[in-house]
């Protein structure tokens, strides 16, 4: 079945297309119902003939990984010239949409939680001998928004496809690092060796990407920027400097500093000096971070520019400005915020609090 798929199309005598979901640099993604199990799955199909040749071996690679923090590859279907990859459907949004759309950075507690999930999923993949090669926010699926009920690394199923396109782009064949859609998205998180010697990347390249994402999540800044200017900075691998607000407040400084140390250790120029995914899992186990659910509310009142109340569906929650993570200026009445609440004398107490910057 060539061309775009439509609701009702039957694939492989088993999967009925329900709706279009999204597309990436190499594939279209649909929700489909598995008539055999009754399960709703993600059905992915390549966007061009070049990708078709790589789809089967990518499916074989992805099927080796089985972990709660990795989207599971379930099946592979070949019909004539068409190829389809069947994956677990994750009812959430990718990290860039789930966590970056309304805030430009996250507090250290939430970053630590994201890092721990990523490290565990990556460790499972590396144990299976699989390198992702294209780790970036759009390849992390989040369930539960800021409460982060689940996080799964996705698109291991196109790992080999991504590798070949990234090699072509790095070597300037057919396209470049700034014209390949895959490379443009991956570049801010790409290890130096993935640019310099793309055919020789190891699992350490994934570790670099993870570190770059941690820095971005915590600071709101890509560690080396994006586009052509990023290439030279990535190859130089000078440790990026975090903005002052990240460690300015004593409540956040200890964990923020630990996360920056981990991120910089992941972004060492020499791949041999970076921690392994297993070592990252152990480091994350030593971090002290909250897993409390997050709520959304509006700053109702501020007193003396020091404390106030957040109004949400559950009523008023007290907060102090020292519990707000982010750069100055401080919050104003009417600002929307994301926060966790804990029992306290009188009203519950909010900690941490981050400002919503986008509607």
* Low-pLDDT residue intervals, each spanning 5 or more residues: none
What gyration radius follows from the Cα positions, in whole Å? 22 Å
From the spread of the alpha carbons, the general shape counts as globular
Question: What's the helix count?
Answer: 11
Portion of residues in beta strands equals: 15-25%
Strand elements, count: 14
Report on the biggest sheet: 6 strands, antiparallel
CATH superfamily of the largest domain: Transferase(Phosphotransferase) domain 1
Number of domains: 3
The helix/strand order is EEEEHEEEHHEEHHHHHHHHEEEEE
Mean pLDDT comes to 89
* First-to-last CA distance: 40 Å
Secondary-structure arrangement, i.e. CATH architecture of the largest domain = Orthogonal Bundle
Architecture overview:
- With 359 residues, the chain is an alpha+beta fold.
- The protein folds into 3 domains: 10-88, Phosphorylase Kinase, domain 1 (2-Layer Sandwich); 93-285, Transferase(Phosphotransferase) domain 1 (Transferase(Phosphotransferase), domain 1, Orthogonal Bundle), CATH 1.10.510; 295-355, OB fold (Dihydrolipoamide Acetyltransferase, E2P) (Beta Barrel).
- 32% of the residues lie in helices and 24% in strands.
- The chain is built from 11 helices and 14 strands.
- The strands form 3 sheets. It has a 6-stranded antiparallel sheet with strand order 1-2-3-4-6-5, covered by helices on one side. Strands 12-11-10-13-14 form a 5-stranded antiparallel sheet, with no helix packed on it.
- Strand 2 (15-23) and strand 3 form a beta hairpin.
- Helix 3 (108-127) packs antiparallel against helix 7 (203-219) and helix 3 (108-127) packs antiparallel against helix 11.
